[in-house]
User: Fold this.
Amino acid sequence: MEKDKENPIGTYLRVERKKAGLTQQEFALRSGLGLRFIRDLEQGKTTVRLDKVNQALEMFGSMAIPGNKPRKGDPK
Assistant:
C-alpha cells in the first residue's frame, strides 16, 4: 500500500470521527463505506477514489475539491 506521511484528509477524518465518538467500524457503517477503506484513508494511503473520499467527508459537511498544491517559497 502506497502511503504518504502527511495526509490532511485522513487526519481530518480521524479527528472528526473521534470527536463524534465513532469507531472506524461505526463510521464505515454510517458512511456506507468499507472498513478497510476507512483504515487505509486514515493511515495515509494516497491512491484512493475521490468519490469515496467525498462520501466520507460528507459525514462532516466537507468535500475535497481540486486545487493547486502550494510549493516551497510560494506566499500563503
About this structure: The longest helix spans residues 8-19. The mean pLDDT is 88. The helical segments are 8-19, 24-31, 35-42, 50-58. The chain has four helices and no strands.
